[in-house]
Amino acid sequence: MLVLNFAVAGAGNCIEVAGAPFVFARTEHGSFVLPARCPHRGGPLNLAKSGSCACRLVCPWHDRDTTVTRFFKAGVPAARRGNSVTAVFPVPETAPYTMGYLPLSEELHCAARSEPVRRREFPWASKIPTPDP
């Protein structure tokens, strides 16, 4: 397994592993590492638009759509932390890779926007004494 870190957006947002490019994408249904080429004809999935429902991506070359779920099930395990993502590729540790840049469609580009930090409020938390400095 090859574990790599790359940028969520901007320079270095594309990692090409063993000749196949990947980018980090985020839709309404979650975030994932997306193969940047359509499996049907090699079209640029990094420029995909949303399909009839937001759970589908449409290849800009031939209008074939693919479910986002497909990328979760057969995708590359990844975790985002700030402006970088760590992904585990199912190739040998010695597989060749390069970093580069690929533009993302507006539907996928929302990965670059900062997400609000959600903090859960616990009503009992205010009753916990804090230590004096």
Structure description:
- The protein has 2 helices and 10 strands, in the order E-E-E-E-E-E-E-H-E-E-E-H.
- With 133 residues, the chain is mainly beta.
- It has one domain: Rieske Iron-sulfur Protein, CATH 2.102.10.
- The termini are far apart.
Give a count of the beta strands, DSSP E runs of length 2 or more.
Answer: 10
Residue share in helix: under 10%
The global form is globular
What is the correct CATH architecture? 3-layer Sandwich
Strand and helix map with partners:
Elements: E1 2-7, E2 14-17, E3 20-27, E4 30-35, E5 49-50, E6 56-58, E7 65-67, H1 68-73, E8 78-81, E9 84-89, E10 97-100, H2 106-109
Antiparallel strand pairs: 1-9, 2-3, 2-10, 3-4, 5-6, 6-7, 8-9
In short:
With 133 residues, the chain is mainly beta.
Features:
single chain; 133 residues; mainly beta; Rieske Iron-sulfur Protein; four-stranded antiparallel sheet; three-stranded antiparallel sheet; 2 helices; globular
